[in-house]
Amino acid sequence: MTENTKIELNIKEILEYLPHRYPFLLVDRILEFETGKSIKGLKNVTANEPQFTGHFPQRPVMPGVLIIEALAQVSGVLYFLTNNTKPDADNWFYFAGVDKARFKRIVEPGDQLILESTMVRNRLGMWVFSVEAKVNGETACSAELMVVKRAL
After folding, report:
1. Superfamily of structural domain 11-150
2. pTM over 0.70, yes/no
C-alpha cells in the first residue's frame, strides 16, 4: 500500500485483521484509512448487545471501558494495515497503557459511534495512538492508547 492509500473495510474484511469475535468485536466497518497515519471506523450501538442487560437496565449506557476497547480495535486494524500483515502467533499486540482518557458524552443504543485513531509514534515495539470516539460530531471519549507487540 502506498502512503496515501484510503480504503473501506466491511465486517468480513475486519475479521481478517482482528482476533476478536462476537460479543467482543466492537467495530462494524472501517470508513477510511491512511497508511501509517490514521483510521476511521464505525460501531453501530444496538439495544440487543449483552452489556445493556446490566449497564443499566433502566437506562442503557455503553460502558466507557468498551468505548476504549472499540478505539483500541480500530487502532489494531491501523497497525496491521500499516505493517501489511495480519495477526498470527508471531504478530499480536496488547494494551500497555491508557492515558488522558476523558468521557464527555453518554453513548446509548441507537447511536453510531465514529472511532478515530491517529498513529503518534512507534518506538522499540511500543505504539502510541491518539484516539477519539464521536456521536453526531460530539466527542464521547478521547484518550491516548499504548500497545506493545508480542508473540503469543
Report:
1. Hotdog Thioesterase (3.10.129.10)
2. yes
